[in-house]
Amino acid sequence: LPLGDSGSDVLVFRGEIEENLVRYLRREELLGVSVLKDGEVRHYPPSSEPVDIESLPFPLRTFDDLRPHLHRYFNPKFRKRPYTALMASRGCSFRCKFCVPNSISFAREIEHRRYFGGKPRPAIASSRKVLKEFRKVKDDGFRSVMVVDDQFLWGRKRTLEICEGMKDMGLEWGCLSRADFLTDEEVVRALAEAGCVSVDIGAESLNQKVLDDMRKDLKVEDIYRAVELLKEYGIRPKLNIMFGASEVETEEDIVSTVRALKKMGVTEVMFSIATPFKGTEFYEWAAEKGLISGDLEDVDPLRKSTISYPHLSGDDLERLLKYAYRSFYLRPGVVLSQLRRAISGGNLARSFRAIVKLL
Question: What pTM was estimated for this model as a whole?
């Protein structure tokens, strides 16, 4: 960011930018900024406190020139248009060693780990502010929303307050959640009554040995219970499954997980290969053991492996990824389910292309 009267050639704001940018504009102490001046770079440490998310204004989602084009914004998860996204928290308090959260959360985590050690505590908006933003989204003309927090259901009381306030909004929405936050029937019922139609669950594996080695702090039975409750109340569960994040995982474990998923009755699963992104514990561990085998500058975890174990090579992981997608999705019931959703949502061409890629 070149700024004319800054006295610097280039400024880079790292991590969470909002408060640091205001400090800079007010000529206050520089925090979380890297400065290039006369060929030399100086890094200013960040604040030890997270951004006060409660005080931040809502993002500008629309303006006069954009309004005629809002109908083009959609998400295949939802039937209603136009679509937008909402973020009500930053960060995660859990300790999965492979984790790469959303970009804002990851940026703040990298900064905190570098300067202070460990993860920063999550910044979580109150139920009151979340409801105000949902109302603003509706008033702006949007009809479907994806809450992109890495974990939306922060606490039972807050979740129930949000759901109660959304009952009459008529919005179609989805979110991400841990499975063990979805084993409470009252919470799942409240989500359904509030208009939630889809929940992404970071399951990663259906093998307890593998989950424990990932430090997922999750029981396999909680995944099954969460899926059961979501289906009972008409909410579509989507499971995210990751191969290669654990050194104890075997080919047999992966095949067993895929077979279990096919019996579970879900129709949406995203399979991927774990990527040791720089800034994660997984990267540090894999680099120390010499397990990184691919180009981390050109990463596609939905196709390519950048990690290779003695008992499970990168080629093995890519082969198993193809097996998982073809085995799970090329079943008559799943194909019909995807086509029905595509037709109702006007996304038939997109779904057809996805099916062709699996062949």
Answer: 0.88
- Rounded Cα–Cα distance for residues 188 and 194 (Å): 10
DSSP symbols for 134-193: HHHHHHTT--EEEE--S-----HHHHHHHHHHHTTT--EEEEEE-GGGS--HHHHHHHHH
The pLDDT tens digits for 95-109 are 898 887 777 888 888
Residue 94 tokens, joined: 């859990």
CB-CB neighbours of 204 under 10 Å: 26
Alpha-carbon separation of residue 19 from 6, 9, 31, 105, 334 (angstroms): 17, 21, 9, 15, 47
- All CATH 3.80.30.20 domain ranges of the chain, comma separated, are 67-358
Residues contacting 249, CB < 8 A, separation 6+: 205, 207, 210, 213, 243, 312
Distance (Å, rounded) from C-alpha 296 to C-alpha 306?
7
CATH number given to 67-358: 3.80.30.20
